């Protein structure tokens, strides 16, 4: 699904942040990406989406070499990737259900109302469908953000510290939804510095843990 071969990256004017990164995210896999603040987790995710271009090496996505894709090609590829951030922005004047449907609205696609209702039920927000975003709790916002991230049925879901602002119970609930997505066949990668959370969810999913350290990305051992 994503394949990196000897990838390197540094922001302009900065030091090399990632180097010699070689890995494969197999279809249907579940990965955690961990590492200290500033190690490059967000940067890694932005390389996966084609938002950033590596300074060396090769990134393949869905069987295509990203370097050979046109701007439109990258845009098409991004539609196959759902991204969940730590702080999701909503349009505060629109009810939750319309916020969740935004990716359909902005790409002029029809809204399948039963499917949309099903999605809201899946994230436990049926009762809040008409609520405005400012009235939602942090956990509700993140579950709405997850619904929006998957409304275009992406093959790959990337989550960047999705539980950063949530308490333990809400964090687990969100992660369980990500595990369910994975069970339904989606490839999932969750960046988090919260090792306790990884330990807590591990019995429920066959996850591999990637650790960024010193610019390298390596598989962590079982002694997490
Ligand atoms: N657009 C940018 N231009 C220059 N430097 C950047 C840019 N974005 C991030 N950086 C730097 O790159 C390094 C890695 O940042 P990144 O956000 O990828 O780390 P992270 O592991 O996700 O951190 P955190 O856990 O704090 O979110 C940091 O030193 C950061 O300041």
TrEMBL record:
Domain ABC transporter: 2-224
Swiss-Prot/TrEMBL keywords: ATP-binding, Nucleotide-binding
InterPro entries the record matches: AAA+_ATPase, ABC_transporter-like_ATP-bd, ABC_transporter-like_CS, ABC_transpr_LolD-like, P-loop_NTPase
GO cellular component: plasma membrane
PROSITE patterns hit by this protein: ABC_TRANSPORTER_1 (PS00211), ABC_TRANSPORTER_2 (PS50893)
GO MF annotation list: ATP binding; ATP hydrolysis activity; transmembrane transporter activity
Protein name: ATP-binding cassette domain-containing protein
Pfam families hit by this protein: ABC_tran
């Amino acid at each position: 699904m994503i394949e990196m071969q000897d990838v390197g990256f540094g922001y302009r004017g900065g030091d090399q942040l990632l180097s010699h990164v070689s890995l494969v995210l197999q279809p249907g896999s579940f990965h955690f990406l961990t590492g200290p603040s500033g190690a490059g987790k967000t940067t890694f995710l932005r390389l996966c989406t084609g938002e950033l271009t590596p300074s060396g090496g090769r990134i393949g996505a869905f069987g295509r070499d990203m370097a050979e894709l046109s701007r439109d090609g990258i845009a098409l590829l991004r539609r196959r990737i759902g991204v969940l951030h730590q702080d999701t922005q909503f349009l505060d004047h629109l009810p939750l259900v319309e916020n969740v449907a935004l990716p359909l609205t902005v790409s002029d696609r029809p809204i399948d109302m039963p499917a949309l209702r099903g999605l809201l039920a899946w994230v436990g927000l049926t009762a809040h469908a008409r609520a405005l975003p400012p009235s939602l709790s942090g956990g509700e916002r993140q579950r709405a953000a997850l619904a929006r991230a998957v409304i275009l049925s992406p093959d790959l879901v990337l989550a960047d510290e999705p539980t950063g602002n949530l308490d333990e119970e809400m964090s687990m609930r969100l992660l369980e939804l990500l595990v369910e997505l994975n069970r339904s066949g989606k490839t999932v990668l969750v960046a988090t510095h919260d090792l306790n959370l990884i330990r807590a969810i591990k019995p429920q999913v066959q996850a591999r843990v990637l650790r960024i350290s010193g610019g390298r990305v390596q598989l962590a051992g079982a002694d997490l």
